Every structure is written in structure tokens, then in C-alpha cells.
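User: Sequence in, structure out. Go.
Assistant: Echoing your sequence, followed by the C-alpha cells.
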Amino acid sequence: MEKEYIKEENIQDKTEEEKNRELLRSIIVTRKRLEEAHKNFEFAEEDLIDYYSYNIKANQAKLDYLIKLAKTKGLVMDVDTQSKLNVIQEVG
């Protein structure tokens, strides 16, 4: 079965509010990936130990960058904002 090509949205086409929402969503997703990598690392064996340690380091670096970017934009993520973004993420 052939996969259908899905065009990615250009960031230029987004409003500032959409960019900010996307940034906050990226923070949430990256946090979840980091948590998963930590959990998997606990049970990793042999070569997977290296894989998950690199995965943890990569996700932590990405999260640090995204949080720094959000701070420079003055964005704040409280519990209410995070729950709204989680609902949007599950729907979209």
C-alpha cells in the first residue's frame, strides 16, 4: 500500500500565536520522550544502554533549548495551558 504524501506546513505560514502554541507543544512532547527514555534506560541491556543514554542526552539538550526559547519569548506554561495543549495534541 502506497503512503499518501502529506505536505508539512511552512512555519512562515503560521501566526505568532500558532508558533507559540507549537513551541509549547514541542516542550510537552520532548518532556514525554525524555521520561520514556529514562524509563527504558532503567531496563536496558547491553548495547541499548548506550542508545538510551544518547537518547536521554539528546532529548535533554532539545528540552533545554526549547525552554530557553520559550523564556526569551516570555511564554509561561502553567497546568491549565498544558492541559489545553494536551487536548489539542490528542485531537490534532
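User: And one key feature?
Assistant: Residues 19-82 form one domain.
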